[in-house]
Task: structure prediction
Amino acid sequence: MDQARQQLIRVTADSAMEELIALACIGAPLWIADSFGSNTYVINEEEYHRTFPQAIWPELIGFKCESSRETAVVMISPPKLVEILMDKFRWAAVFAGIVARAITHEVLTPGVAGNYDGALQVLSAEFQAPSHLVPTREAYFARYCRRHDNGCWAVVDVSLDSLCPSISVSCRRRPSGCLIHGMPNGYSKITWVEHVDADDRGVHNMYRAFVNSGLAFGAKCWISILDRQCERLASVMAPSLPNTDAKTIEGRKSMLNLAERIGTTFCGGMSESNGHSWRTILGRGDDEVRIMIGKMLADLGTPLGVVLNAAISFSLPVHPKRVFDFLRSQDSRSQWDILSHGGELQEIAFVANGRETGNRLSLFRIITADGTNRYVLILQETWIGPTGCFVVYAPVDVVMMNAVLDGVDSTLAEILPSGFAIVPDGPKEIAGRNAETGESNCGSLVTAQFQILVDCDPTARIHIDSIAAIKTLVIGTVNRIKDAMGASSTGRAASSNTPPHM
Result:
């Protein structure tokens, strides 16, 4: 990178830092309530241009501006949060629900653990929503960290695509990022700002209100993910957790690490990102099952062979919390889980992962109809937040799971995650509230995703019968859920009480 370009990036980053701090601190009339009535605030663009006359961004055809700001107290110290944000691997891992891929292109000013003041790097990233019906957003930007005189930290992103015309992006990050104030108890008060121009022409109509409301990519989503991850970390570090069969702290940590990998792998298969090895072979629309193929060769933690990743998104006229509670409950599992062979689940261990009762890690055994145990267990993690909720699980071998509970490194455990991402179908406040329950009347958008090993030979060709069997399984599962939620429709695909033969 030539010196003139480096200097231009530094000037751009300095200017972006000053703008971010102002955006984080100034109130009305710069920030106004959004038109969706979703209890969030957006930038008044006219006031923005008056406040920042130098912030002139070339117009991009087909792009629209999005902005949001959120403030919260999170269970993490400022230095630890800065370390996460300035390390692309940790950043992508912690925010796996929204970061599909991250690449470091240049490090102009390096930082080290404990001292990232002045660190400046050039990144590209893909951002994803919890459905394949929402295309990923690609951005190319500088990330700059600075510690200010009052002791607070700030980390800002600002797009650089205008300096590199050959790079194609679908998202331009105007100054965005967070201001981090330390608190006496070791926590952080964080003000998160998102201000982007994005090309959303590929978003399916089913998810358009969800994306437009800011719940998919806005500041509330980033803060929600960070808050949950910090609560998970607190569970790992807790001095005692009586509700787990792990015999040691190492066993509990290994179990939670395995669950985190299940969640990360599930999110990694959600979108058609350039950062994963999946290849779509069937399905694009909302009424179709999207099927991707992955050939697993020698990766730790994945079974050798050909894996099919099948997903479908559908709507339910039911509040997301009700759908979440139904799908996570062991008592209702037999109503929809075809692969459980009609058996019931018995929870044999659990870890509570935070303030919400729905944030829970559970280990289940399957009790078949004749009362016998199957040779696999189910490790399931569920979490709920203001922008959506997840039920993610994977079958695990009994012998391996016992080793994990004894503290063995869980990276050796082979997993194929499946599960559900459940989000509101629009801003909750617009729909009003139910007079009896007090819940908002919004419905749910659900993405169901299943990863299934269809051949132990990674070079094998996939037969059309295998694809048809996967489609039958997915459609049958969705129909069962719709029936249970009172949302069945005529002309549904036929479902079966037993899983298709594969």
